[in-house]
């Protein structure tokens, strides 16, 4: 498969680009931030995502979706990133759907209709500390009657406050650090004993701290096999990380575009500042880093879709590289904007904030760099 | 089985049966590279491998068969290279004829020129060098002064070239000359001539690596015929329009120098962990070095994806014409960083300049050599100028 988008994927890109620019622009983000919306995104817009077919990208055709792959999900995510569109697409339609794709038919039949219609929002309850450490999950799920009882705390559950379902990773045996003993559950947020405390993040998205105080779930809430949730979690993380990398790429590309436009127009010392070689070289270096990140992300998406055994290595490369390139893009963006880059009025600061939040989502560059070393055996 | 699948199977079987064992060892130094030519030096297995591959046209698999190529499609070429990589086989033939002159002739050459010059390149019979740079012209290549006067049936060449890689070992030269002094870019011609012609002299330049792949090349009243019989012109493209050919060729050169930043296979980190020692967790026993190695692994793998994407979009005519400049910049900078890390991991042992243990200072010399990467073929600064002007459309001062 050549490493560029085919015609169908380009058509999807065009329609996603038009849609996000028209319906989910930066103005939209500002509107929902300024009215202090408790969800941080528009449910009406989420319904429109569904009407466009976006929510079913990773759902099979048999089950009412489009039956497409990570490349296509990434196409939509890049446009989300470019426009800073607030939406639960990444948690629900990418990571959430991939987790459910690893589960049984009954679970998919229960959850896919709501996702496909844009009525349902999923969130991921994985992290238990300030940093992403899925191998250190210790939240307990103990057998009780026909099912399990969940006790513990999760944080950084993005869109957790608006979600009707949480994908929860917990321990059914063993302890933190063990390879086996993880189990994933689909948990209704209305369950007894489950409480949520939503907080606004730096990028205006909402994330919840979730407390499980003896939350009882049936055995059919288990996604995949009991004690064997590691594989399901990995599948979800692969899609989520690659998706986050694609969204990050969009953020970096959007920030670069507005910065390059800005220095083409801004005058200092009676001269357009974009004529200064000091800025030109930094902008060209940034372009080069963004292009390399783009190639890495597309490669990871294609490898995942092909089921390559080396996909995970490339997923970590994509997450780390996109994060570094986009971090460079937003930092250079604010600097090249000068004083106005520090104002709320200009958009560049919003890009910087989204980049920071996405960097932490499912592992930052350091986390994935360490993983790459481990996968290479050193 | 699809056609491509059976092609892969047959190719793998043929390679397995025909590649000499010596050609399945990693390249250690310059002498492990087979350059061919009229007065070649071959190490064991090199000639056999070159001849067998040339007979199938696989030294230049994607060139048309009539010019000595294999006539393979893009997909087949990719499979051949993948299979050679998988079986850890060396390239049967390296040459500026293959990388640079060949593509330029295929694009700009006449039918007569293609039939005359390309097959000997494919068979490794003629080794070419490139006469571009001149003292004082640096990255402003088009300021070149070497003159070619029209003397009726021949041109009279006078001047000097510099940084002519392997000029002392080359049989022929593709050379930029000034055929019109009244203008800059539109007064340059792209000429082909024999290095044994009277008046051509070369002198190696010793570099900071202690080696001398580069030469100074002098032309004193060199007579270059206008044709080599049967309408084979010595000038490629039109007289005075050689800059178009030169630019096209520079695109190829830049993507070649950019490499993939890794010269092949395994990650630096796993290699050095064995050498350096591991802690009780099995990790490279220097946390800072380990972190830098892992960052390098990420940059190399990402750049390798970029190289693949660049290749795919280039062949499909989907990439921006200035994209090779970006590749050259990024690839050479990463290669320099990579060699800094190799030196750092090697510690005092790789400082040895002439010992047996250091294999004649191989690592240090290799490190020093990479410093030229971001200068030769256009400096990083010139690449960034081109990217900022042509891709980002930033204004001129």
Task: From the structure above, extract its key features.
heterodimer, A: 378 residues, alpha+beta, 4-stranded antiparallel beta sheet, 51% helix, 16% strand, B: 397 residues, 4-stranded mixed beta sheet, AcylCo_DH/oxidase_C (chain B), AcylCoA_DH/oxidase_NM_dom_sf (chain B), AcylCo_DH-like_C (chain B), FAD (chain B), flavoprotein (chain B)
Q: What would you note in describing this structure?
A:
The complex is a heterodimer of chains A (378) and B (397). Chain A contains eleven helices and ten strands. With 378 residues, chain A is of the alpha+beta class. In chain A, strands 1-4-5-8 form a four-stranded mixed beta sheet. The longest helix of chain A has 37 residues, at 229-265. Chain A is globular, with a radius of gyration of 21 Å. Chain B has helices at 3-18, 46-55, 74-86, 96-108, 111-122, 242-258, 268-276, 287-315, 323-346, 362-370, 380-391; strands at 128-131, 147-150, 154-165, 172-178, 188-194, 200-204, 214-225, 235-236. In chain B, helix 4 packs antiparallel against helix 6 (242-258) and helix 9 runs antiparallel to helix 10 (362-370). The relative contact order of chain B is 0.09. Chains A and B meet through helix 7, strand 10, helix 8, helix 9 and helix 11 of A and helix 7, helix 8, helix 9 and helix 11 of B.
């Amino acid at each position: 498969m050549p490493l560029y988008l085919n015609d169908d994927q380009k058509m999807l890109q065009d329609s996603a680009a038009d849609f996000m620019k028209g319906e989910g622009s930066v103005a939209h983000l500002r509107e929902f931030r300024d009215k202090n919306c408790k969800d941080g995104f528009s449910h009406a817009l989420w319904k429109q995502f569904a009407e466009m077919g976006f929510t079913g990208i990773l759902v099979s055709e048999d089950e009412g979706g489009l039956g497409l792959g990570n490349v296509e999900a990434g196409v939509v995510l890049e446009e989300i990133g470019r426009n800073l569109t607030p939406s639960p697409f990444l948690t629900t339609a990418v990571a959430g759907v991939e987790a459910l794709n690893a589960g049984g038919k009954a679970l998919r039949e229960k959850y896919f209709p709501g996702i496909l219609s844009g009525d349902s929002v999923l969130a991921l309850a994985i992290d238990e500390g300030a940093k992403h450490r899925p191998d250190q999950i210790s939240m307990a799920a103990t057998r009780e009657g026909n099912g399990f009882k969940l006790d513990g705390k999760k944080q950084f559950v993005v869109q957790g406050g608006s979600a009707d379902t949480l994908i929860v990773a917990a321990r059914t045996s063993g302890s933190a650090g063990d390879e086996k003993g993880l189990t994933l559950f689909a948990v209704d947020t209305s369950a007894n004993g489950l409480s949520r405390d939503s907080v606004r993040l730096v990028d205006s998205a909402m994330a919840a701290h979730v407390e499980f105080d003896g939350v009882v779930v049936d055995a059919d809430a288990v996604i995949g096999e009991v004690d064997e949730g590691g594989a399901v979690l990995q599948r979800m993380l692969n899609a989520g990380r690659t998706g986050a990398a694609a969204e990050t790429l969009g953020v970096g590309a959007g920030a670069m575009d507005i910065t390059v436009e800005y220095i083409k127009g801004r005058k200092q010392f009676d001269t357009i500042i974009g004529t200064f070689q000091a800025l030109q070289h930094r902008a060209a270096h940034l372009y080069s880093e963004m292009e390399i990140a783009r190639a890495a992300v597309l490669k990871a998406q294609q490898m995942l879709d092909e089921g390559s055994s080396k996909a995970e290595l490339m997923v970590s490369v994509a997450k780390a590289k996109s994060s570094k390139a986009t971090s460079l893009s937003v930092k250079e963006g604010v600097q090249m904007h000068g004083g106005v880059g520090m104002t709320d009025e200009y958009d560049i600061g919003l890009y910087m904030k989204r980049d920071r939040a996405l960097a932490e989502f499912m592992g930052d560059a350091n986390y994935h760099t360490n993983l790459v070393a481990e996968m290479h055996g050193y | 089985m699809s056609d491509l699948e059976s092609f892969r199977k047959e190719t793998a079987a043929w390679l397995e049966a025909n590649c000499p064992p010596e050609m399945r060892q990693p390249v250690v130094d310059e002498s492990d590279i087979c350059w061919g030519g009229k007065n070649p030096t071959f190490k064991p297995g090199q000639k056999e491998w070159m001849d067998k591959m040339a007979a199938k046209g696989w030294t230049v698999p994607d060139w048309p068969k009539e010019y000595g190529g294999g006539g393979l499609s893009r997909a087949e070429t990719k499979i051949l290279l993948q299979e050679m990589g998988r079986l850890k086989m060396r390239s049967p033939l390296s040459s500026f004829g293959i990388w640079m002159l060949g593509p330029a002739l295929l694009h700009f050459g006449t039918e007569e020129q293609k039939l005359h010059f390309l097959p000997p390149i494919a068979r490794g019979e003629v080794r070419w060098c490139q006469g571009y740079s001149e003292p004082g012209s640096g990255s402003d290549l088009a300021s070149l002064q070497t003159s070619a006067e029209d003397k009726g049936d021949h041109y009279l060449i006078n001047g000097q070239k510099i940084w002519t890689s392997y000029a002392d070992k080359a049989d022929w030269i593709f050379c930029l000359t000034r055929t019109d002094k009244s203008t800059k870019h539109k007064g340059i011609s792209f000429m082909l001539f024999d290095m044994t012609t009277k008046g051509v002299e070369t002198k190696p330049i010793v570099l900071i690596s202690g080696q001398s792949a580069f030469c100074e090349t002098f032309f004193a009243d060199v007579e270059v015929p206008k044709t080599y019989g049967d309408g084979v012109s010595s000038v490629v493209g039109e007289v005075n329009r050689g800059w178009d050919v030169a630019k096209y060729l520079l695109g190829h050169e830049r993507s070649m120098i950019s490499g993939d930043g890794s010269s092949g296979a395994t990650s630096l980190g796993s290699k050095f962990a064995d050498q350096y020692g591991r802690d009780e967790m099995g990790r490279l026993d220097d946390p800072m070095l380990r972190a830098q190695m892992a960052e390098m692994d990420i940059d190399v793998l990402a750049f390798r994806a970029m190289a693949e994407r660049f290749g795919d979009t280039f062949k499909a005519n989907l990439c921006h014409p200035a994209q090779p400049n970006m590749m050259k910049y990024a690839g050479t900078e990463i290669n320099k960083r990579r060699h800094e890390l190799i030196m750092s991991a090697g510690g005092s042992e790789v400082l040895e300049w002439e010992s047996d243990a250091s294999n004649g200072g191989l690592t240090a010399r290799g490190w020093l050599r990479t410093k030229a990467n971001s200068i030769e073929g256009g400096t990083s600064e010139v690449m960034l100028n081109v990217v900022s002007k042509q891709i980002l459309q930033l204004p001129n001062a």
